[in-house]
Write a structure and sequence with these properties.
By secondary structure, this protein is α+β, with helices and mostly antiparallel strands. The protein contains 17 helices and 17 strands.
């Protein structure tokens, strides 16, 4: 009996060990499988693998005979470089909810890890950091200085990169625009200027780590880490290439009152005047004979009414320019900073305003104009990491916080529309909108889709789905919107100041004329595709044109039915 019991006990022990090893093997195999699957999802997100599925269209009016609607995607889906750039793309191998959920979890893990690392690994002393900067970066580390975002000490161009800012990136950006100094603040903001700040701070007060460069110091709270970029400028491209000819204009009656700085120089050249005005940190260089003036666009010199260039003889050699009534105007690399300061609303807005548009209709550009005109950030129903990293700080604020002047949205469902008290409805030519959104979908905010993309099956599928969305978006907002200001992209582009004034008044904000002129001087922003890339083929087939033209006529009729002006003539029909 005892022997039998011993055998049973021995057998059970073996079973226990066997179960333990099987459990361990199962857990290891599961972990490896999870890691492999995560890597596959990441690879698909980084490649941006296209899919034949287009974004779903919103609710549509049955009387127009459009395709069956489907709901839009998760409005808080992250699309920055840390996560999948397009949840609507590359979903052939993984379900949508899994990819978006994995993206959010990866983002949360990264944030927790960086916070934990910064708590566990305090920054080295500022003196050691300064020596490290001097060794690793071109230019000389000048020290730590006080910084006020409203009354800036470096008054030139401003750049943001809230994820990848480094000392080298800031230096290069300032050097390309012919500035002498580059200053970094808050770990992610870059300021340029030609005058060294006067108020120095303690070295240890510059303690913020650069977002894109571990172990490097990028200023601090109201503190600037300042570098000289003179060594970079020696190898930079010539200043003349960064100077833009604005045209020939009638000179104001009193130039010395209109322009704060001036220079009289025999044999004056464009380079001499531009260099002088750049060092004085003015965006305009104005030349009349041997006289050089520096300043800003103002009410007395708005640059809106140019004259025949022949009145200013010799546009390349300033000394031969006509004296007296006319002058040559050049834009220097210096940024007009009279309208670059922005902030969140100090109190919650009582009126919840949407900035609504179809994708590709210029919503980002309109936000740039509104932010610089009003001085307040705009929000977004979504989160776009690329926009946030370039200074649209309202991207990260919850869209219902009411701390932003208006909220970007592409939604067009009845429920989503009725959440807003009023809206600016931005409309663009559907042919241009479809091409712009297709470019963004396959090449980001600044790139172009390849010829292979245009000739693939994705393009006709895209047009079939998105053309109806373009129409239904306008129709639904006309039907359910409570208080609307309709703005046509083409009108805004053609008559910027008058249309921008309408938008600002609709938002119940008072702005100065000088601030609007500053916006006009900085009208393009950071997300304008350089040039208009011409296709060597017509992307729209006759069948596509017939479809789009029907939607154009329907929307035009609906606008007039609501006592709005119809679509611009250039829309109809191609």
């Amino acid at each position: 009996m005892a022997k039998a019991f011993f055998r049973l006990q021995k057998f059970l022990r073996r079973i226990q060990f066997l179960l333990f090893f099987l459990t361990a093997a199962y857990l290891m195999a599961g972990s490896l499988l999870l890691l492999q699957r995560t890597r596959l999802v990441l690879q698909q997100g980084s490649r941006g693998t296209p899919s034949n599925q287009a974004l779903p269209v919103p609710e549509e009016m049955s009387r127009v005979g459009m395709t069956e609607p489907r709901s839009l995607q998760n409005p808080r889906l992250l699309v920055g470089t840390d996560v999948l750039q397009e949840a609507a793309l590359g979903q052939q191998h993984s379900p949508h909810w899994l990819m978006s959920r994995n993206s959010e979890l990866r983002q949360l893990r990264r944030r927790w890890f960086h916070r934990f690392s910064s708590d566990q690994e305090p920054l080295q002393t500022a003196g050691l950091k300064a020596m490290k900067h001097t060794a690793e970066h071109k230019g000389t580390y000048m020290g730590c200085f006080t910084h006020d975002s409203r009354e800036r000490t470096l008054k030139g161009a401003v750049f943001y990169d809230l994820r990848k800012m480094t000392v080298g990136h800031c230096q290069e950006a300032c050097a390309e625009r012919a500035y002498s100094y580059a200053g970094l603040a808050f770990g992610a903001e870059c300021y340029c200027g030609n005058t060294l700040p006067a108020a120095a701070a303690k070295a240890e007060e510059c303690s913020s780590e650069c977002k894109g460069e571990k172990g490097s110091v990028c200023g601090g709270l109201n503190r600037l880490s300042v570098y000289s970029v003179e060594q970079l400028r020696a190898g930079a491209r010539p200043l003349r290439r960064n100077v833009i000819y604005r045209g020939c204009f009638r000179a104001p009656e009193n130039l010395t009152d209109t322009f704060p700085a001036s220079l009289i120089q025999p044999n004056l050249t464009v380079e001499m005047c531009s260099e002088f005005c750049s060092k004085k940190e003015f965006p305009l260089a104005v030349i009349r004979g041997q006289e050089c003036y520096c300043g800003y666009p103002t009410r007395h010199f708005s640059l809106r009414e140019g004259t025949d260039g022949r009145r200013c003889s010799g546009s390349h050699n300033a000394s031969s320019a006509a004296g007296g009534d006319y002058c040559l105007v050049y834009q220097t690399p210096v940024q007009d900073t009279r309208c670059t300061d922005r902030k969140f609303l100090t109190t919650k807005s009582k009126v919840f305003v949407a900035l609504s548009s179809f994708p590709g209709a210029g919503n980002t550009w309109a936000r740039h104009l509104i932010e610089h005109a009003t001085g307040y950030y705009t929000g977004s129903y979504y989160f776009d990491g690329a926009l946030y990293n370039k200074g649209f700080k309202g991207e990260k604020d919850h869209w219902r916080s009411r701390r932003t002047i208006c909220v970007k949205t592409h939604e067009s469902g009845k429920t989503e529309i009725e959440m807003f008290d009023s809206a600016i409805l931005l409309i663009r030519n559907p042919y241009k909108s479809l091409m712009a959104e297709f470019n963004r979908k396959y090449a980001g905010h600044l790139g172009y889709a390849t010829d292979r993309n245009w000739k693939s099956k994705e393009w006709p599928d895209f047009v079939n789905s998105y053309a109806s969305w373009w129409a239904s978006h306008v129709l639904e907002w006309l039907k359910y919107g409570k208080r609307l200001l309709v703005v046509h992209y083409e009108d805004l582009k053609q008559s910027l100041i008058p249309k921008l004034k309408e938008m600002v008044e609709f938002l119940n904000v008072t702005v100065t004329e000088d601030r609007l002129l500053c916006v006009e001087n900085n009208r393009d922003g950071n997300f304008k595709r350089s040039g208009a890339k011409q296709k060597n083929f017509e992307p729209f087939t006759q069948e596509m044109k017939d479809l789009i033209n029907r939607y154009i006529l329907t929307v035009d009729e609906a606008l007039k039915g609501r006592n709005f002006s119809g679509l611009p003539r250039e829309y109809v029909p191609r």
